Amino acid sequence: MDKSKTKDDVIRLTVVGDGTVGKTFMLVRYVTNKLPLGYEPTIFETHNCTINLNEKRYNVILSDTSGQEYSDRMRSFSYSFALSNCFLICFAVDSRTSFENISHVWIKDVKKANRKASIVLVGTKSDLRNTPNETISKEEILKLVKEIKAHSYVECSAYTKDGIDNVFNEAVRVAAKNMDKNSKCVIS
Ligand SMILES: Nc1nc2c(ncn2[C@@H]2O[C@H](COP(=O)(O)OP(=O)(O)O)[C@@H](O)[C@H]2O)c(=O)[nH]1
Ligand SMILES: [Mg+2]
């Protein structure tokens, strides 16, 4: 059986970041095109979809996380994390704490779980940039991108839908590129 072929077709994306940054809203908006208003789930069930990019079709498995993983850290957390090809590490552009926790908490967990996975840094709630709220500057973000060696930075708003499709297209693009690179490093 050609194991590598079936494996390469599947891309596992895992969304992490502090609670309330908007991870679940981002996923629900992308998958259903709606906002989960009125019921606000803490977590969005794992969802399979296909994303076409550069005339190629990818089977994508999207996983949300809720922080619950911490209570049972050594099992579900490390297990689902270890399988991930790409992490979308999120902060909300109006939350300095969520931004700082990326270098304090999230990058460490992600690296511990899977050193080879790609990293896309995601700034959520971009609609708040047009309000008097204090938001994280582009300079600070670029500095963090370099520090954590993220493959890219994307910004989105589940409320306005700005950048939502781009988050997932970009994640698939960097994951596919990274998997390609890793599969070429075969030791025979
Ligand atoms: N302004 C704004 N608020 C948002 C956006 N997305 C989510 N929120 C709010 O942030 C809260 C937390 O979102 P949620 O997706 O549950 O966060 P999670 O804990 O990271 O999954 C919700 O009550 C939303 O109303 C957004 O794009 N813009
Ligand atoms: Mg959630």
UniProtKB/TrEMBL annotation:
Chain coiled-coil ranges: none
Main location: membrane
Protein's GO biological process: ameboidal-type cell migration; cellular process involved in reproduction in multicellular organism; developmental process involved in reproduction; hemocyte migration; melanization defense response; small GTPase-mediated signal transduction
Superkingdom of the organism of origin: Eukaryota
Pfam families, alphabetized: Ras
Keyword Membrane applies: yes
GO cellular component, one term: plasma membrane
InterPro entries assigned to the protein according to its UniProt record, in alphabetical order: P-loop_NTPase, Small_GTP-bd, Small_GTPase, Small_GTPase_Rho
Localization in the cell: Cell membrane
UniProt keyword terms in alphabetical order: Cell membrane, GTP-binding, Lipoprotein, Membrane, Methylation, Nucleotide-binding, Prenylation
SUPFAM superfamilies registered for this protein in UniProt: P-loop containing nucleoside triphosphate hydrolases (SSF52540)
Membrane topology: Lipid-anchor
Family indicated by similarity: Belongs to the small GTPase superfamily. Rho family.
Protein name: ADP ribosylation factor
